[in-house]
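Dear all,

This email documents one entry for the complex benchmark we are building for the journal club exercise. For each entry we list the sequence lines for every component of the assembly. Then comes the predicted three-dimensional structure of the complex as a token string, followed by one or two observations. Please use this as the template for your own entries, and keep the labels exactly as they appear.
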Amino acid sequence: MRHILAALVQNQPGVLTRVSGLFSRRGYNIESLAVGRTHEPGVSRITILVDGDGLVLEQVVKQLDKLVDVIDVRDITAEEHVDRELVLIKVEAAPEIRGEIMQIVDIFRARIVDIGQDSLIIECTGDHGKIRAIENSLKPFGILELVRTGKIAMVRGPKYGEVQNSGGK
Amino acid sequence: MMTGAEIIVKSLEEEGVDVVFGYPGGAVIPLYDKLYDSSLQHVLVRHEQAAAHAADGYARATGRTGVVIATSGPGATNLVTGIATAAMDSIPMVVFTGQVALPAIGRDSFQEADITGITLPIVKHSYLVRDVNKLAATVRAAFYLAGTGRRGPVLIDLPKDIQTAEAEFFYPREIHFPGYRVPGEPNAALAYRVTKAIGLARRPVIYAGGGVISSGAAEQLTELAEKTQIPVTTTLMGKGAIPENRPLSLGMLGMHGTYYANYAVSQCDLLIAIGARFDDRVTGRLDTFAPQAKVIHIDIDLAEIGKNVRTDCFLHGDVKAVLRELLKHIELPQTEEWLDQIASWKEEHPLAYRQEGERIKPQYIVEQICDLTGGEAIVTTEVGQNQMWAAQYYQVTKPRRFISSGGLGTMGFGLPAAVGAQMGCPDQLVINISGDGSFQMNLQELATIVQCRLPVKIIILNNGYLGMVRQWQELFHNKRYSQTELIPVPDFVKLAEAYGIEGRRVRSREDVRPVLKQAIEHAGPVLIDFEVAKDENVYPMVPPGGSLTKMMGG
């Protein structure tokens, strides 16, 4: 089963290695990972997407929680949450077919962020399913490049840390 | 203003450190220059691995944090086994490694190794110091982290230019970590429920681990056991949690545990695990481990909840604090019948070996050591058969007197650990029980023993084999002794003499006790090479992955 983990960490050198190392040492492949600063100085948030057996993953989460630089970590898979990925797709687009591409872009509420001579860069935000759908829709035109961020996720309702957390450190 | 090196020495003094274990090298010359003027004792080992084991032995024997210094590159990488050994057994240690100067990092400079990267999975935490102004606070943080919560090794990597850069010295008392909290008082309501469960049990067993020792809770554990009349089995790391000569002690459980400990655990209705982690050497086959028992688990580490065995109740906290809480309202179970059952197991299946043939049985030597010292000496062991015989036959009567690499199982640990234990406890008798294989893994430390004038007694149970592996080959691999005969065995007596240590060789059973007695009475170090039965095995034995009740030689 796929799990979404949300971790608040101190922005110290090596923190990402410490976190990701715990997964690789137990044979977990991190499917996606997104890190960025939060509104609090010195605090970053990591969203990790992993596939794996729940019991073993629970152990990894507990070990993560023990890392000195990890302030808090939660498996939010089962909680009501919003998640997003961002993708940039460079697609082959001769002038005569641009109209067709723009229609697809509209349907997905995506945006065209750059126009080249024979190509377009499309930016799209959404959940995993939507991103996969736009990718599939654009494939016939010829995708030249594709880059996506890892998933970021946020639990609905109270602020992170104010709800009951699973780690209980 | 002070240099980084001065700040480290001053910080160590602030921490009350009295001895450090190390070996100099290029990247720590500035630090050693300041140590030269300091009143800190420095134990000069002969290989960095031994510095880590010695600091570890010091920490296990005293309960204080062991301190290690090594240079960059090979000095640092030589520590890896020692750091991992400490990590697996939750031993508090602060390790200083030299590093090439900041501008040289990442350029494959001479004697550069990414030691913070290499040690990532085996430290509790680590630092690479990049700013001399943060050095003192980093040292404070390292000692705080190493010595609180579930203890463990913390590494500080010190670039050479940090050691010579200058800063004002300010030593903070408190350090704030948003992501690290030491457990507070235990949950009283939950503890109360546990006392109720204890009161209702009819066949309870306490299974005590190293957490009891590191928490300093042996007294409380013994009190709990004696009040409630609940028998206690310990892990290798938990030896000394209760005096092993008391009737309630079942000795060690697990692969080479006693028959009665393994049977008690397999038939108990309540298992109280205290500061233990259900290691595979303890549990054997998981689905047959304590099958009838409700399991109460008391531990300082939340990550231990249900890691290997499902538990019915987890009491989080420092073992000593939890035991004190339990003792407030303890209810007494009726255990007479259960204790009778255990007594008859003890009588029918005692720990035993057959004295046959001419060669000395290694078990006999350990028995004699136990008898001569009353189980009060500090015994350090190596790993393998010597370790298991020591664990089985050396009935330790106090905590911190049995020092052994439990989790990692590091051969070569015992001799340097004896150095550290003797440094920490100069008035105690320290005995290293060794095998001929393990001894040869760190024998260079004989020089350290002589240099520091340590009266360590070294007992070699010499069977000319890598004995435990030989035993497995005999039992499970059709006696195909692949690479386990360690010939030629050197002349250990001459070797001892070459280092200036008194050496003795014992070939006959009658000589065992008198020679041991002389060695114990001798003021200086002694090495005794006991030529023991070559094919003696450690029994009982639960074959790997087997159930605790399916013992060979029980």
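Observations: The CA atoms of residues 15 and 82 of chain A lie 25 Å apart. The first helix of chain A runs from residue 15 to 25.
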